[in-house]
Amino acid sequence: MNQVVSRRLLIVSMLIVIPLLAAGCQRGSQGDSAQVVANAVAATGPVSPEPIEVATTDWPWWRGAERDSHAISVQVPLRWEVGDRDGGLQNGAAKARPSKSADAGTVVWRAAVAGRGLSTPSLWGDRIFLTTADEEAETIAMLGYRRTDGERLWSCQLHQGGFLVTHDKNSQASPTPACDGELVFVPHAVQHDGATGIWVSAVDLEGQLRWQTLAGGFNSVHGYGSSPVLYGSLLIVAGDCDGAGFLAALDRTTGEVRWRIERPQKTSFATPTVAHVAGRDQLLIHGTSLVTSYDPLSGEEIWRCDGPSRAAANTMVADDELVFASGGYPEKFLLAIRADGTGDVTDTHLVWKKRKAVCYVPSMLLDDGKLFTVNDDGIAKCYVAATGEELWTERLEGAFSASPVLAGDRIYIPNEAGKLYVFRAADKFEMLAENDLGDGGFATPVIVGGRIYLRTNRWLYCIGS
Q: What pLDDT, on a 0 to 100 scale, did the predictor assign at position 100?
């Protein structure tokens, strides 16, 4: 074992995961509760890269099974109407007004979502999972819905008290849950028993809390929003912040820490991703004024490149050879980097860069050799991914925090006011539809099984034929 790994394991073995007497989980309105004592300690055992089996009808984590926001479904509604903007529709099956076009859709059902949260839904089997926070009571809960009709099946309280300061456009329940078919995982930044940090919770599909682990310390400036990444037997979480930044991998069955590394001590909000690029799996994350690639099994750094900004709040994308990173505070750059290097590749592997109308919060989208971006101000662009040649630029109305999703040759993206745009994924811009959701929000659409699942400020929608 080399000295670097030996030192890392020594650091991990000193990490004490504080036991947590978990709050109760409630099913529906029955009020049944169960308490779980979670006492996860650092571990140094083997990890497995074996992939999780995901059905084509599932969307188990942020950006979908392949982490690229590509929907398997191509027969997806293009236009629909949700009816009463003031919420006249009742929960359950909705009598919306479908369009008369061949691409007509309708609201199959909608379910009320109490509290506030920005997390995107995750889908596995007949379940939908999302999180919400009651900011007055200072509680965070995971909610489980039935996929067929939107009935809420259970609510599992994850935290009570200990809320940290957050930005007005952030929430206490922003990370998107990730599901491996047995457990649903989500991290939150809270204070518990004097320990302020990123607490990771695992809930089973019936709404029972199974374990909670303190992954690392966290100093909040504008809150937390990074979603977890599942890779083989590992659950990977980021905690970029001033003074305590880290990247950690937990055993997804037990919550035990498998590896943990320090990150540059700067506040950032990006979600990491794992991509198979340049012939190997790479764990990619940007922000903290660096783009960095790690070995997802060990946390060992592979390469790093300066930029694109101190803070980033989106997720990188990659093709077979290049990775793309966009950040927006205070610097504004979009970088394309060749991913076959080692060490510092700043002067050797930067292929192209842009500095106008780049994305801070919305993630980018790759398809058929083209890179599509919609930035926070609604400026949409299409580039040739290999060269950075700009093919077109258009402006969409409104401010944007959600990320684009591809279904067939269509890109779907809602603005914060609740208008969902659909445009062609092509080298020439073509607007296909504008749909008024009747309610604003920040979450990204999920498109699977021919249906669109979308969380707004007050509702969870299912839109289908």
A: 55
Backbone torsion region of residue 253, taken as left when φ is above 0, otherwise alpha when ψ lies between -120 and 50, otherwise beta: alpha
By the 10 Å C-beta count (0-12 exposed, 13-18 middle, 19+ buried), 339 is classed as: buried
- Asked if pLDDT for residue 1 goes beyond 80, the answer is no
- The stretch 139-144 carries a mean pLDDT of 98
Phi-psi region of 79 (alpha: psi -120 to 50; beta: other; left: phi over 0): beta
Delimit the domains of the chain by residue range.
47-112+370-464, 281-312+315-360
The predicted pLDDT at position 41 comes to 34
Alpha helices by DSSP H, listed for 239-358, are none
Q: Which residue type, as a one-letter code, is found at position 324?
A: F
Q: Would you call 8 helix, strand, or coil by DSSP?
A: helix
- Evaluate whether 133 touches 117 at the Cβ level (below 8 Å): yes
How would you label 32-67 residue by residue, b for 16+ Cβ within 10 Å and e otherwise?
A: eeeebebebebbeeebeeeebebeebbbbbbbbbeb
Global pTM? 0.89
Question: Do strands 70-71 and 405-407 pair parallel, antiparallel, or not at all (unpaired)?
Answer: parallel
Q: Give the chain's mean pLDDT.
A: 88
Q: Tell me what pLDDT residue 243 has.
A: 85
Calpha distance 41→292 (Å, rounded):
27
Cα separation of the two ends of the chain: 57
Q: In this structure, what DSSP letter does residue 54 have?
A: -
Architecture field, domain 47-112+370-464: Beta Barrel (2.40)
Class of domain 281-312+315-360: mainly beta
Residue indicated by tokens 């790759």: 366
Report pLDDT digits (tens) over 310-353. Answer: 999 999 999 999 999 999 899 999 999 999 999 999 999 999 99
> Which residue in the block uniquely carries the two structure tokens 């980018």?
364
